[in-house]
Protein 1
Amino acid sequence: MDVDLANSITIYDTTLRDGAQREGLSLSLEDKIRIARALDQLGVPFIEGGWPGANPKDVQFFWQLQENPLNHAEVVAFCSTRRPHSTAAEDSMLQAILAAGTRWVTLFGKSWDLHVTEGLKTSLEENLAMIQDTIEFLRASGRRVIYDAEHWFDGYKQNPEYALQTLLAACRAGAEWLVFCDTNGGTLPHEIAQIVREAIAAIHPIEPQAQFGIHTHNDSDTAVANALAAVQAGVTMVQGTINGYGERCGNANLCSLIPNLQLKLGYPCISDEQILHLSQTSRFVSEVVNLAPDEHAPFVGRSAFAHKGGIHVSAVERNPLTYEHIQPEQVGNRRRIVISDQAGLSNVLAKARTFGIDLDRQDPVCREILQRLKELESQGYQFEAAEASFDLLMRSALGQRQTLFEIRGFQVHCNMIPNPDNPYARPDSLATVKITVNGQEILEAAEGNGPVAALDAALRKALMNFYPAIADFYLTDYKVRILDGTAGTSAKTRVLVESSNGLQRWTTVGVSPNILDASYQAVVEALEYGLLISNQLPLVART
C-alpha cells in the first residue's frame, strides 16, 4: 500500500505506566530502563515513563534518563490536574513533575460531570479552573502538554456541552494535544467514530491548531478497533501499550495497531526498517515483565503465521496469499508449518524445508516419518509444540541422528523428611546418572531443588567435559500436562521442556505414565538438540 508521509500517526507508548497497572505485572527500575530503550529503538516517538511524585521508582527512572538520555524518543511524565480550591504553583505533586526534567508532560483531567461532582466533590466550574490553571503553570515552567481527557466518551454521552468545555479549557491554556480517553473501555467502534468526528468538528473552528489523540481500553475487546476508528475519524496520535498490557482487560495493543495502521491503512507510524523489529520487541518486553508471550497474538505471536491443516499447508506452499493477510517478515515474524496428527505429507515436506532439507515426495522415508509422527501423537506426544523433537525424529528416519551419548541408567532420590529447623525448606533431590560417551562410561550425581532439576544437573555434569557448549544451555520453561485424568495416579503425562543457549530456543517433548521418565526424555533430547545446533549439523537429503 502507498504510504502518505503527510498522513502519519504519532505513536504514544504507555507500557511503563498504564501497562504496569496490569495485575501480576511488576517492573523494577532496571526493567523500565530496558523497555524504554527497546521502545526508543523501535522508533516510538513518545514514551510515558510514569508518575513522578506518586512513585519513588518513577522519580529514579526520570533521573537516570536525564543522565543517559534516549536517542530519539521523548520521555513523558504523567500527572493529574491540581487539587480543588488550591493553586498549581502550590501543588507539591506538580513540583515533582517539574523535577523529572521532561520536555513533555501528560496531564489528565475530568471530562465526565459525574466524576467531577461525585469523585472530586467539587463544582463543574472549579474543574475547568483546575484544568486551565495546571496547564498554564506547566507551560509557564517551559513544559509542553498533552491533555488526556479522562472518561471522555462517557462524559460526552452524559453531558456533551460540558465535555467540550473541558477540551476548550485545556486547549486555550496551551495543551498541544487533546486525547480522547475511553477509560472504562465500554465504548464500541461506531460510537467512537461518531463522537470523535463530532468533537473535532466542534473544537477545530474555535481552536484550529488543536491536535487530537485516542486512548482506549480493552474491556469490550474492541480497544484496537476503537483506536483505528478514531484515526479514521481524524485523530493523529494513538496511545497504547506493547502486547496490550494494562489494568483490567488491558490497553490498545500497539503490536496490532502499528501494523494495521501502517501496512493495512497506509498511515506511517515508524520506519519500514523499525517495523521489522516489532515481533522481537514484543517478545523482549514479555521476557522483561516475566509474562509468557501470547503465542496466538496477531502479527507478532508465534502462531500468527502457523499452518497446521494439510490443505492449508499445500496452498501456502504454492502461494502464501492463500492463507496469509501480510508477509510475516514485514513485522519480523516467520511462517511456521505445524506438525501434528492432522498433518499430511505436505506438512512433512514443508517442515523438512524449514530445517534446510528438500525431501522427495516419492521417497518412502516421507511416509515413514508421517506414520511415525501419527503413531507418537496417538500416544500423547505433541510435535507442534516441540519442533526440536520432530527434527530429531526426522534425523532418525534419515539415518542421520548421531549418537552423541548413551544413557545407561538413572536414579532419582527425594528426601521428603521435614527439616525441623526450617519447616519451609524445599525437599532435597539427588539424581545419579550413568552415561557412555565415546566408549567411556561416566557415573555422576548432582543435587537440585526438585527431581527434574537434579536430573538435569547430573546430566550436565557428566557431559560438560566432553561438550563444553552445554554450559551455555539453560531451561526457560517446563510444562506438565496429564493426558488422561480419569486414570488417576496411573495417568499418562506429557512434559514439554523449552531450552535456550542465549541465541536460539528449542522445545522437546517426553511422554510416559512416570513423570520423571517423561521429564528425562525431554531433558535428554533438549541437551542432544542443543549440541546439534551448536555444532550446526544440518540435515541432508538422502542420495
Protein 2
Amino acid sequence: MESKSPSQSKLPKSATPQKSSQAEPAGTPTTPAPQSWMPWLAAASSVAMLWLTGPTGMGSLGAGSNRLGEFLWPFAFVALVPLFWLVRSQASVWKRPVYLAFFAYYFLSLQGLRHAHPLMILPLIALAGYLAIYPLWFVACLKYFPNVGRKMGMGGNVLWAATLWVGGEWIRNYFATGISVLMLGHTLVDMPGPLLVQIADLGGTYAVSFLLVIVNAGMAEAFFALRESRRPDLEPQFASGPPQAPKWKSSVAVASIALALASLYGAFRLNEKCEPSSTTFLLVGRDEQTEYQQDIHREIAIYQSYAQQTIQAVAEWDQPIDAVVWPESMLSGGQPWLIAEPDLVVPRQPGESQANFSPQEFRRLIEQSQGDFTTRSVMFLDALKSSGRPAPALIGGCGIVRYGAVPQQFSGVLQINPQGQVAETYAKNHLVMFGEYIPLIKSIPVLRDYVPPGLGLDAGTGPQIFEVAGLRVLPNLCIETAVERISVNHLAELRTNPPNVIVTLTNDVWFDHTAVVDHHLRCAQMVAIGCRRPILSSANGGPTAWIDSSGRVVEKVPYDQAGTILATPAIDERTSLYSRLGSWPAGMAAIILLIASLQCVRTRRSIPSSVRTATD
C-alpha cells in the first residue's frame, strides 16, 4: 500500500495532484491548502483595517460619528496585504470571504443612507453588493493572471497591482451614474499635514489610491519573502517559483521611492503661498429635520429658522459680509423659482384633455410668483441691513421650474443680489438615482405624468459662475462633491476664466449624523486638492465647513448643531494637472483591467477542471 506524505494527506480530494498531458498554467498554486478559516480571517482583517482608517459613526446604532482616521490612518499602508496573501494562497474557498467581507464593509460604512427613506434599505443593500464586486475583481485578476507583473521588470508586481485597483475605481466612478465615496485614497485624508494626499492635484484621488496599492504590494512582497526565508521547507507559492531576492527588493524599492517622492511633492505644495482675500462668506448651517414629502408649512418654518439665525449672526459680526450661503433646498420656503421660456406651453394636469389657462394667463401667474419671491428676498435682506452695514448677496439652494415646450424641474442654486433680484441660477448636473429620478421613467408616456414629487427632476447641463465681490464662485449641489469628476469637469470647461472658489450646498440631515456625512466631507477635501480651489460647504445636518485649497479643514460646525462660519478664502492661482488632463490616465488603467479580465477568463478555461475546483 502506497503511503502519503503529510502534506498530501491534508489536501482536499478535489485538489489532489492528478496526471495530465497539459502543463499547468503559470500561476497555478502548488502549496498545500491553508485552513478553511484562514481566507475568512484574511478578508476580515483587510476590511477591518480599512474601516478603522475612516469615520466609523453608526448614528442611531451607537456612538455617533467619529474620525478614527485621524489616528489610525497608517493602517491604510497594510490594509490590502491580506488580499495579496489570498492571491498567493491555495485556499479552496476565497471568493465568498472576499465578497462578503467587503459587502459588510460598504454596508456598515454607508448604513446611514437607510435613514433617508424606509425603502432605502433595498438600494443600500444593492449598493454594498455592487461595490463589493470591485475588490473581488481585483483579487481574481491577480490570482488568475499573476505573472504579468513579474515580466514587467523592476517593481512590476506593485505597478501591475496598482493599475488594476485604480482601473476598478475608475469604472465604478462612471458606471451606473458613478460614486467616488470610499475610494482607497480617502483613507489618508485625515493624516497630519495632510502630506501624501497633495498628489491628488496630479491625478485626483486615483493618484493617492495608486500610491497606497504600491506601498501595500511592496509590504506584501517583503512579508512573503521574509516568511519563505524563515521557512525553507515551504513549497514554491507559484509554478514559476518563489519571489527571488532581486524581485521583492525591487518592489520594496519602488514603493519606498514612490512614498518619498509623494512626501517631497506634498511638502512642496503645502509650503506654497496663496494670495489673501478680503471677500467674506457667511456659511450658515443648521440641523433642521426634513421629510421626503414635506408640506409647505414645514418648508416655511425651515426658511424662517434660517432667516432668524442669519439676521442674528450678521448683527454679531463686526465686518461687512459679501455673501450669505444657505444649504440645499433651504431657500425655497415652499416657493420655487419659476421661469417662463419663450416657447412656453401650458402644462396639462394628469387626466385633463386641455390646459386650464391660456399662455398669457400662465405667464402672468409666473410673473406674480416671481414678484412674491422677490418681495420676500427684499424683506429678508432689508432685515440684514438693520445693523447699519450694506446687505450681502444671498446664495442658497432652491427648486427651479422652467416652463418651455416641456416643463422641467431642477434642484438648483440661486444667487440673489443685494437688491433682492435673482442674478444667476445653477441647475444640479448630477442627480441621485431613485432619490431624484428613476431611469427611463420619463420615456414611458403612461407613467411620466404620475411621477411622485421629487422623482421627476431634470439634470442641468453645465457649470455656472456667480460673481461675488470680485471673486468668481462655482456653485455645486448635494452629492456633486461626492462624484469627483463633476467639479473637475466644470473647471476644465471654465479653464479660460476659472473660478476662485467652489461653494457646495447640501442637505445631509437625511443621514442622521452617521459616517456618511464624514465620507461626504472627505470627498470635498479631495476635490479641493484635485481642483486647487478652496471649498465652502454650507449644509443642513452635515459638513458646514471651510476647506482650503490643500484639503485642510479650516473651520467646521458640528453636524448636530446650528452655527455659522465667516470664511475669507484665499485666492489660489495654481492650475492642477488633474483639472487639465481629467481622469484619462485612470481610464487607461480601466482598459488594462478589462483586457486582463478577458485574459483571465481564457486562462481560467484552460485550467483542468480538477485543478480549477481546488483554486476556486
Protein 3
Amino acid sequence: MQTRHIEGQLHVSGQVRPQDIDGLVSAGITTLICNRPDNEEPGQPNFEELAQAARARGIAPFYLPVGGKIAPEDQAEAFAKILAENPGPTLAFCRTGNRSEKVACAARSRSAANGATNGRALHHKVVIVGGGSAGIAAAASLLKRSPALDVAIVEPSEDHFYQPGFTMVGGGVFQQPDTVRKTREVLPKGASWIRAAVSGFAPDSNTVELEGGAAVTYDVLVVALGNRLAWDSIEGLEAALGQNGVTSNYRYDLAPYTWQMVQKLARTPGPRRALFSQPPMPIKCAGAPQKAMYLSCSEWEERGVLGDIEVEFHNAGGVLFGVPDYVPALMETVERYGIGLKFGSTLVAVDGPAREATFRTETGEITRSFDMLHAVPPQEGNPIIANSPLADAAGYAEVDQVTLQSLGWPNVFALGDGCSTPNAKTAAAARKQAPVVAVNVLAALDGKDPVAAYDGYGSCPLTVDRGHIVLAEFTYGGKLAPSLPRWLIDGTRPSRVAWHLKADALPPIYWHGMLKGREWLVPPAPLL
C-alpha cells in the first residue's frame, strides 16, 4: 500500500483494508483516521471492520467521513484535535488519499489561524505575507528546493484569483469560474496557512502583526502583498460600478458585466459611445485597459456595428505603450478600429445615472457622455506596507531591484505588485521573481548574501482582437526579452500563436506550473 507524507508524522493513502493492518504496525503507525464514508462503493470494507482489526494491534482508529454534503473543512477541527491528542505516526485515508490530504490542509490552516488569533506565540522559519500569485509561487519555489522547510503563508481570503484571466472574461473568451480556485487548493504542500489579515510589520523584532492583536515571528520574511486599487480616488466611481454601463475588468465580479455591455451595445441601434480609461502609472498590467478596448472593438467589428460606435481611449499618460517597439502594431490596431486617442486625459469623476464621465486634461476638465465606460482605478502602495518601516516614499516595500532584498533588513524580501522594483506589474513578473526570492531566502537562512538576480522581466500579452496578440516581453529599461524564438512568435506583431499561448497555455502554466514551483523558462539567474 502506497502512502504520501504530508507533514510531521502525518501520512495519507488510499483505501486501507484489514489485511493492511500488520503492515501499518510494522511501519509504526499508531493512529488511523478514516475519511471515507461507509458504503461508498460495493466491496469497500466498512469502518467497524477496520477499527476492530486496528484496535487488536494497538492502533487507535477514528471515523471522520468526508463526501456528499460533508466538506473537508467540516472535519478540520476534529481532525486537528485527533492529531493534537494522539501524537505519533498517523495515517489518514479515503478512496485515493486526496480527501484526507484536503482535510489535513484545512486542519493545518485552522490550527495556525487559531494559534495566531488566540494570542499564542507563533514562529515560522519563513513567513510569507500574501497568498496571491507572488506569495504562493515564492512558497512553492522554496518548498521545491527545501521540502521540509517551515513556511507559513498569511492570507485572509478563502479564494485565489487568476487575475490575468479577468480580461478574457470581459471579452467573452473565458467563463468567470475559470479564474478562481479555493486558496486551500492552491497552497503548496508543506506550507502552513495562517488565515488572518496583517495589520503591520515590526522588522526590528522580526514580527508580523495580525488583526486582533496577535503576531507571528520569523527568521526570514517575504512580503507579497499587492498594490491598492484606489477606486475611491475617482468621484462617484464606486457607486456607479456594475450598473448604467460602468464596468471594469480589474474586478472579478465586474468582468462578466463588461461582456454584457459589449453585447448590449452591439444590439443597441443608432450611434453610441464607449469610453475606456487608463490612470497614471504605475498600475497592475499596464496593457489591460487597452486589452478591454481591443476585445470590445473586435466583437463589434465581427458583429458589423463598429462603425456606429464612437470609441475613445482616455490615457493619463503621453504614449500608447511604454516600450516603443510594440507601439507600431498597437497604432495599426487603433487605426483599424477608428479609436480616438486622448492622451493626458485622466478620469476624475463618474455620474452613473447621467452616464457622464469627467476627465482632467491640460486645458481643463471635460465631460463626456457614454453608453459604456470601462474604468481603471488609480493604484498606489498597499496601506499596510505604506504605514510600516519597510516602505519607500511611494508606499511600496523598498528592495534592491536585482536581489529583491530589503534595503533596510537583510532577512526581508519582497516581490509582486507591492514591491518597489520598477518593472511592469504583471503575473509574468511575479513568476520570474519567485525563484529569485526562493534562492535568496535560502541563502539568507544560511547567513549568506543573495546569489540570484532578477532582470526586471515582465510580459503583457496585448489582445488586439479575438485571435491575435502582440506579445510584449521586456526587462528593465524596455529591453526586449522574448521567451520563444522569433520564427515562432514575433512579439512586435499580432500573432495567432501568441493568442493560443494566452488563451490555452498560460492558464494551466499558472495553476499547474507557477503555483506548483515548476519554473518553466524562468530559472533563477546567478547574481554577477
